[in-house]
Amino acid sequence: MKQDTAPFWTALKSYQEKGVIPFHTPGHKLQSGPFSTIESALGPGFFALDPSDEIEDLAFNHDFELALKRAEALAAELFGAQDTLFLVNGTTGGLHYLVMPTTGPVLIPRFSHQAVYSALILGAGGGIYLPASYDLDWHIPLPPTISQVTEALADKDCQAMVITHPTYYGTVSDLTEIIELAKSQGVRVFVDEAHGGHFLFSEELPATGLECGAHGVVQSTHKTLGSFTQTSMLHCNDPVWFQKVKEAQSVLQTTSPSLVFFGVLDEVRRILALQGCDLMGQTLELAYSCKKHLARIPGVELLPCHLQADPTKIVFTLRDLGLTGIEVEEILRKDYNIQVELSDYYNVLALVTVGDTVTSISKLVEAIQDLASRRTHLGGHKLPHYRLEVPHLPPSRLNLRDAFFQEKEEIPLAKAIGRVSGTFLTPYPPGVPVIVPGEEFTWEIVEYLTWCSTIGWPVRGLMAGEKVRVLKDYNHLCRK
Ligand SMILES: Cc1ncc(COP(=O)(O)O)c(C=O)c1O
Question: Running DSSP on this structure, what letter comes out for residue 206?
Fold first, then answer.
């Protein structure tokens, strides 16, 4: 196939250039009209690139779905899949399509993104959780080990598993070994590769989920590769499952997907096919140079290599200068006009991608240099280390999906012991839910959440007045 072509993008551009007089949706009729303020921000011609379902290309009989199939086939070839879908609802949508057809339990690491949990709500088989473990020095959640997966699979009859590869912080499991093990037991493996779409383009980066043998992979092309926000790709090497995935997509996806999104995915794929390895080589150079300079600044520590397989994720801490990662994020934003991807108690994560330049990297390094020297002059104390303690997984009384849709009531957290949760309660960071819908509040969970709240640690799902949502009328499921 011709990777130097972008059939969808070309056909969409032709429609734009042809200036067809539209008596079809969308209502803006491909012109800025009364919406000129929007066009002046988006650039001339943007409206004309946004027809609902029209393209101009005789080869596809003006049928955008045929052009889309062609574009997806080119992406499949590049990424090493039998089938690929372009997604307009991000990796969230792709995970939903992969998991919705499951009928048996799905094994997931407890630290999985909320999109994986919402996928379990759509599927019929419910979830089984691999408890989160952490690096206690850096407080980052670690991906599951082969022995944790072996134990879980021996214990439960799982139909599938979803593995996050890499984690937000750039940490990976031994994915090939895990996938081989799962396959030997007839378990399908889906990979949440939201943060790993760029892995294909350098041997210095970890192998992709597909290279490790996964049945299906979803990548946020928008996160690490440069397409528009909301656009992702789902790659599948399991034709039987792919049919089910397409059925799920037909139920869940809008009937008016943005052709701009599809076009941009197609054109980004073309550019990556031609230049992806060079671009990634330059990106890695920038990331290495950034790390080298940061490592020389007194008081700045970088996440050690054994915890990080993806060097494009710059994770650092100024804890020795008495600053939390959250404070560093705020200072960078207020004083240096720099916005990082995320921060937690210790760490700050700055992403380096194909969109970075020598200038953007120098600005980050200079800002950290300046901040560190300001702190050194102030003579700050080290940040106190606290022991990261996370409660055990509570007993499950009802599956996630059933619990999610039950009638709920709000009660004080202090009175929740023995009740079944109707929501996720997730201290953030590290963003690992301590309880999910259908699980019973234990004494340990209530004590832990109360402690989080006392020290001002944000807990997603905890309501004003320290209230939690629990299931009505489910007391009979619980311990008395
Ligand atoms: C690990 C992980 N998986 C899935 C998602 C969802 O991706 P998207 O925003 O493309 O829907 C995210 C988003 O941050 C994520 O971090």
Answer: P
Structure tokens at 75: 């992406």
How many Å lie between the centroid of ligand 1 and the Cα of residue 37?
Answer: 31
Task: Give 398-426 as a DSSP string.
Answer: S-HHHHHTS-EEEEEGGG-TTPBBSS-BE
Q: What spacing in Å lies between the alpha carbon of 194 and ligand 1's midpoint?
A: 5
Q: What is the pLDDT of residue 429?
A: 67
Question: Candidates 86, 92, 224: which one to mutate for ligand 1, based on the most atoms within 8 Å of Cβ?
Answer: 92
pLDDT tens column, 348-379: 999 999 999 999 999 999 999 999 999 887 77
Q: How many residues are there in the chain?
A: 480
Distance from the alpha carbon of residue 167 to the mean position of ligand 1, in angstroms: 10
Is the Cα torsion angle 217, 55, 225, 74 positive or negative in sign? positive
Q: By the 8 A CB rule, do 284 and 181 touch?
A: no
Does residue 35 lie within any of the structural domains? no
Judgement on whether residues 331 and 451 belong to the same structural domain of the protein: no
- The torsion angles phi and psi of 376, rounded to 5 degrees, stand at -65, -40
**Cβ-based neighbour number of residue 180 at 10 Å:** 14
User: How far apart are the CA of 444 and the centre of ligand 1, in A?
Assistant: 30
Please give the C-alpha separations between residue 477 and each of 374, 395, 417, 469, in angstroms, as whole numbers. Answer: 57, 11, 13, 16
Domain hosting residue 283, numbered range: 276-378
Same structural domain, 165 and 312: no
Q: Which of 225, 259, 274 is the last residue of a domain?
A: 274
Flag whether the pTM goes above 0.85: yes
Nearest CA to ligand 1 atom 9: 90
Count of alpha carbons within 13 Å of 110, Cβ hemisphere only?
Answer: 26
Q: Which residues of 26-64 are buried (b: 16+ CB within 10 A; e: fewer)?
A: eebebebeeeeeebeeeeeebbbbbbeebbbbeebeeeb
For residue 311, what is the domain's CATH number?
Answer: 3.90.1150.150
Yes or no: say if 221 and 264 are a contact pair by the CB < 8 Å rule. no
Who contacts 257 (Cβ-Cβ below 8 Å, separation ≥6)? Answer: 88
* 110/149 same-domain check: yes
Rounded distance between C-alpha atoms, residue 244 and residue 247, angstroms: 5
For the chain (length 480 residues), average pLDDT per consecutive 10?
A: 95 94 94 94 94 89 93 98 98 98 96 94 94 91 95 94 96 97 98 98 98 98 97 98 98 97 98 98 98 97 96 97 94 98 93 98 98 84 81 93 95 97 87 92 95 86 96 66
Give the pLDDT score at 480.
44
Is the same domain home to 356 and 466?
Answer: no
Which residue, 216, 250, 274, sits at the end of a domain?
274
- Of ligand 1's atoms, which has the minimum distance to the CA of residue 89? 11
**Residue 192 Cα: closest atom of ligand 1:** 3
